Amino acid sequence: MLAVVRNRWRQIVKKWGVAGLILACGICGLISFIKNGETDGDKPWGIRESVAVFFNHQMERSFFQIPRYWEESKEENDSLFKAEQLMARQFLLYGYLYFEREPLKEREDSLIAEQISYQEGTDEDVKNIEEEHLDYGDDALHIENIMLEEMERENSIHKEEDSVEETEPETEEPAYEEVQEFETAAYPAYTYDWSEKWDYESIVSNFYAVDNSTKLKEEYADLNKLLYQDLSVNKEADGPQILIYHTHSREGFIDSVPGDASTTIIGAGDKLASLLQDKYGFQVLHHREEYDAERDDAYNKSLPAITQILEENPTIEVVIDLHRDAVAGDRKLVMDLQGRPTARFMFFNGLSYGRKSGDIAYLENPYIQDNLAFSFQAQVAANEYYPGIARKVYLKAYRFNMHLKPKSMLIELGAQNNTVEEIMNACDPLAHILAIVLDGGM
């Protein structure tokens, strides 16, 4: 919340200068003075109402941009309420005072929910991870370094063999063409020893990157609840079992072609859906609509549509929101897998829990434990079958619409510096990993 306050005041200074900041502080002081003089009566004091109406009429064009239809409201206090809402949004110091007043609990709920929703919509990427000094690490495995090096060497064998063979002269091909056909791993390259003592600290340190906005409750880090929950789906259902959609459908890659959705995250969704359906026998619905014309409101805009799809398709058990991450600088999330440049990916969970504020009641999710089991089992499968392909499961404070189904998942597939080829190559191991979990193979 402090970051929101800092950013809001910086915006005021940048747009209006120091004089504007002083004016804003003066306004906040005046409003808080008037607020402190209120009584518990049913009607607001005349001075307070006059000030609110003054802002409504005099500042709508220059700053608040209050729509004129508010002035024509038939409700006596509607104009006052709307003006107060905008005051709380534009001047967060006033907002804090505004929230403290018990008679305005309903207004408080709506404003806090709106602010949290805005933060959620702009805060899903983890590009500032280095700046936040998080202990993320590149090794997401509970594996000795010697064994990890051996696994990576095996992944590179195909590339070494290819270099010996005579090759045809290269022709210019689309960036997303595969280097060679992907070979599904028949057996794990590594197997976890679950007989070890997996306490809270060992589970978190080996499988999770916890954003400093949240904390994983100990009750959720129970190995029995994470690893042994049956997540298999009914493939015989008369309808789709898996839904893939994109809250941020505009996310592209370093060589995406402008105007060509097949070279964006939507194209990756097409391939992932095709693999899950044609190769692994699931029925998949890929929803390709756009919701991020205004990125900060994308989760709010996608929620009604996805809810309606689930109502119309009651056989859907799995909901996957497929994204592309954004990383700092020129960092590239790529590895060599069977001689193919392959983007690394990350499973992502929202916990609806703030490290300082606790449970976020406005973002209730009854399926947090189920969501965590889904991502945990996928992470385990990735580490065992394709070591190094998956970054640690990332945990953040908000909800990210993962409350719609128990088996809901947000996936960050590569980042902005990956090529389309690397992204498309990553869909093969990702589809296999999901199939392992959804076939009950864990």
Structural class: alpha/beta
**Shape field:** globular
Task: Tell me the span between the first and last alpha carbons.
Answer: 39 Å
Largest sheet: 7 strands, mixed
Computed Rg: 25 Å
Question: What strand line-up does the widest sheet have?
Answer: 1-10-7-11-4-2-3
SSE order:
HHHHHHHHEHEHEHEEEEEEHEEH
* Proportion of helical residues: 40-55%
Total of helices: 13
Given as residue ranges, the uncertain stretches (5+ residues, pLDDT < 50) are 35-45, 59-78, 96-113, 127-176
Total strand segments: 11
How much strand content do the residues show?
Answer: 5-15%
Q: For the residues shown, what is the average pLDDT? A: 76
Please tell me about this protein's structure.
- With 442 residues, the chain is α/β, with parallel strands linked by helices.
- The chain is built from 13 helices and 11 strands.
- The strands form 3 sheets. The protein has a 7-stranded mixed sheet with strand order 1-10-7-11-4-2-3. The chain has a two-stranded antiparallel sheet with strand order 5-6.
- Strand 5 (334-337) and strand 6 form a beta hairpin.
